[in-house]
Amino acid sequence: MINLKRIAAFCCLLLSSIRMFAAVINQSQPTITLKEALTMASKQYEVSFIYEDELVRNKRVSPPAAGQFRKVEDYLSIVLKPFPLRFKKLGGTQYAIYAKRAAAPVEEKEKTNQVATGNAANTQAASGQPSPHVAEIQVRTGSDTATRRLVQGIVMDESLAPVSSASVIVPGAKVLAVTNTRGEFAIQVPLAARTLQVSCIAYETQQVPLGSYLFYKVVLKDKTGYLKPVEVVSTGYVNLPKERATGSFGVVTSKELEKVPVANVIQRLEGQVPGLQMTITAGDNSFVYDNVTPAPASNTRTIGQNDYNLNIRGNTTLQSERMPLIVVDGFPTELDLKTFNPNDIEQITFLRDAAAASIWGARAANGVIVIQTKKGRARMPVVNFSVGFSTQDRPSLDHLGLMNATQVLAYEKELVDKGIINDYIYNPYTAGVRYYVSDGIDLAYQLKSGRITQAEYDTRAAAMGALNNYGQISRYLMQRATSQQYNLSVSGGSDVHTYYLSGSYSKERPSTIGNFGERMTLTANQDFRIIRKITLSMSLKGSFFNYRQGGIGAGALSNGGRTFMPYNSIVDEQGNHGRFYYSIGRHYADSLQGLGYRDWAYDYLDELALAGNSASDNNYTGTLNLNIPIYKGLSFNASYALERSYFTNRIFNRENSFYTRDLYNMGTTMQNGQLVHALPQGGILATNRTDLNNYSARGQFAYNGSFRGKHELTTLAGMEARQTSVSAARATLFGYNEQTGIAQVVPFGQMYSTVTGVNWFSGSPEQNDKRKRFLSYYGNAAYTFMGRYTLSGSLRYDDYNNFGLDRKYRAKPFWSSGISWNIAREPFMGRAVWVNALSLRLTYGVNGNINQEARPFTNIYIAAADQQTGLPYAGISAAANPALRWESTYVTNLGLDYSLFDGRLGGSIDVYNKSGKDIIYPLEINPTYSSIYTLLLNGVTISNRGVDIGVNGALVDNRRFGWNMGLNFSYNTNKVTDNRFQPSSSFYSSLSGTIEGYPTDAVWVYRNAGLDSTGMTQIFDEKGGKVGPSQNVSDIGAMKYAGRRTAPYYGAFNNTLRYGNWSLYVLATYNFGSVFLRPAVSNYPSTRRFDYSLSGDIAERWQHPGDETNTLVPGVQGIYAGRSAYRYAFSDANVEPGDYIRLRELSLGYTVPESVAGKVWARNIKVNAVVRNLGLIWKKNKAGLDPDFVPVLSSNVLHMPPVTQYSLVLNVGF
């Protein structure tokens, strides 16, 4: 269960922080102008005021605390009391402020009227009534005879956020106003005008009837499927207007994230941004990864590595981290993306080139993903609630391509008949055999040894061959995958305090019975105005995971000593549980059990009940940000971030579990007629705890200003210190009693006799601590002239403690420069009214990457005790490299952004070149004296070139029907351009993607030359001659380049159809140009290796002379049978094209009319029915395989293809 005590404590911390800071604000709040006090009231109470400037000028008040008064009248009575001012309600939500000497504001000139409005819905909406698209405030205008009058207002979207850059015109008149960043506008309209027209890219145009009114609130509806203009992009350090950014950015907003109802943000990003390449291999879960355990000793990420992979613009490293840097609310995070609730995210910005990412220096070579979470706005509280349910069927095992029972029996009989399973090595009746002997092998062995006749064998084999019980895996070990999601958020605030509070709960049950996961997230983002414009931002986030991972599932079919055979029965026809002897032969186990040994049988269903693998993962993050304006655009910002994670894994093998019984029996020997037990009775508990403690402190000065209407300058400079600390501890307790918590002491490292030889006690307590420190100095500047020409530059100097004491190893500068030209603002573009935006960008710079395990000094490890002497000992874990340097990636980017035809067509085109230099390569060395097999050296250069294209268009757009399309296309070519350590061996495993002139993800294969007359695989050597498995090949020329594992062409295509309140969203993804290896048998059992493979390829194997003309699958017999199978598996005979088009999602949504939603006091209600993982629309390979889910029987992760998922999601806003 999730730790409720910790969550309760975290909630108390959130609440106390809100109260504490609110109290501080109230106590320290200085006097403010009367005009500011009225503005606060308009936002707090959803009203508007009309008054003359002279009445409020030079007047200051001490405002009451927000929320102190329920009615605006009470608030005004206190605020206006010190002055000779009165108020009068004119109707609706409008109030007039007037001097005491005046009777009433009957005749007021419009040109002196000032209107203060809130940033929220009108009073009707607050009381549960449907809010109209236009809210009007009526006031008598007097008898002005001028030809024009002033009309003011505010434009908002459906979430009540201000819409900037909206156009406000009077049809037929030459007057225009554009809303500012707060959504406000003011326009002089002819007296005879009867309509205002408000329009903005990606929103429906609104016609506003004009009456005798001064102020209008206009709410624009989203135009479904339109590409909304990205007003601001974030680098994590600074927010920049898109039009002034020279770098290459990709942006995903909360609107796009909402389209994919999955608990993990990873799945929601697929197909959203050009240049982002994703491979998702988790078909039945989102955050319940195959591996949830941190690996502190690893140089790269381990959590989720079997479930997803993503990169930005290809790969420029070999041994270092390939995952992009993740930045959340301005600070890097070491946590996985599953930690963050997608519903809390406002915007995700992808930094793709040097100008965008170089500000992050040594961690930016792989690109940067900047996440901004939601914040509150000064408005009445807004509540959003959503709930979602998903389900999908069990995965189909047909995808694995396994042999049936008859084929398996024939294969096993051949192994016995040809002596591969022989009397000396695999006799199931004698000791010394620690291998699984299947029923088919046992039956064949009995026939060969004369224990049964051929007729008996035929009868029993026919009965077993008729079973084909793979279906029992699905029935007893797998289930329908289900998930649930619940989200609740509240946001609002006043001028001095805004807040965003949210909580979510998600639960997932993957298709493997026994696996389970739940996640709870809590978020509190607050902003306080302390004194005048000094602001303090505070964010507290918590995520709490609970896992259970005792399932078996389809893993029972993996290669190994416990492979489930198709003739096996988990439960037989009488309902009895199947019993399997996965450690020693059944007959020998029975004889030992008669002597007093414990039961040695394995029962699948009992093991599920006895499973005790659980884990918890609690994560906390907190940030403080203080911003102090100094003088006219100059400000100082101080910020601090703390990140802590506590992971605990508890694997308890109960006393009756197979693991414990097997270990206990193996350690039991007969001495002087008595059984002697090396292991104590009881369970075996293995614990693993990893604590992460990170902090960052930053101080920076920033300037943002303009001069003489032509010059704009944005600069920042600062320094940052960061430390990451990880502490990992693990231990094993033997003879553990779950009720008392007591374990027995065992002599770790000491050997003991077993049934099959010797073993020793492993699992002694271990402690692993690591600390990394970074110190950085950085600066960034952007200058814009006349709103058209922008120059930018950035510089960052990184220092890292694990590169030694000498600064020449540690410190490294990274930089970038860029220019942009806003063509659309040029005078010569005045006649091109169909061009809304057009800009050209060019950037160049260098980013870095860190290999956190490579150091210029020798690393040693200290072990507790030697197994022979019992004395402590030390060894070398990493050899010194005094010439070690940081990896550097030089990036050139040329980009074009455009928006045409009032936003009906828009997108971007980027062409880039990435050159990775000083890339670290593992050079093989002689391990005779050091036990070190490789030395990490700088010496490889990698080139990435490519194109990113994003296009969005509205094909049909009218009030009732709309059809919008979006296309992302990316191309990336990758190759090693220089390698001082070129591999010279042709052995397949040595080709690690470092062959000069070829990609880092190159697929190298043997050139298959067919089978010889004995059934052995032949290949062509470098000279074109045929060689058999007994002959070595030593030249790389014997290998063939088959293509790339990663598709060079990739992207996504989406369509949105809208009819009335209905919408249909379709997402398809595609990959072109990659290859993969079709699953094939890569090994046969031998006297040295006894792994079972159920690959269907085996049924096509060579068995008799002449078969070589009909098959390429080698035979099982011969001293080189293993090498023969290996060369066949990794030959060009099994290369398949990886091209495909996948239908990823189909979503049907319905928005409840506002008039209906208002009857249940809701602001909006939307229902979505979503179908995901609909399958491949097209694939190029003829093997019938999904290229992203190629089954690998030799792995614990079988890569089962995703089954179609059905979801229902309800969103309600109040």
Automatic annotation (TrEMBL):
Record-level GO cellular component terms: cell outer membrane
Subcellular location, record wording: Cell outer membrane
Gene3D superfamilies: TonB-dependent receptor, beta-barrel domain, TonB-dependent receptor, plug domain
Annotated signal peptide: 1-22
InterPro entries assigned: Beta-barrel_TonB (IPR000531), Beta-barrel_TonB_sf (IPR036942), CarboxyPept-like_regulatory (IPR008969), Plug_dom (IPR012910), Plug_dom_sf (IPR037066), TonB-dep_OMP_SusC/RagA (IPR023996), TonB-dep_OMP_SusC/RagA_CS (IPR023997), TonB-dep_rcpt-like (IPR039426)
UniProt keyword list: Cell outer membrane, Membrane, Signal, TonB box, Transmembrane, Transmembrane beta strand, Transport
Any Pfam family matching the protein: CarbopepD_reg_2
Chain ranges of the TonB-dependent receptor plug domain: 242-368
Principal location listed in the UniProt entry: membrane
TonB-dependent receptor-like beta-barrel domain sequence ranges: 592-1174
Recorded topology in the membrane: Multi-pass membrane protein
Name of the protein this chain belongs to: TonB-linked SusC/RagA family outer membrane protein
Family: Belongs to the TonB-dependent receptor family.
Keyword Membrane: yes
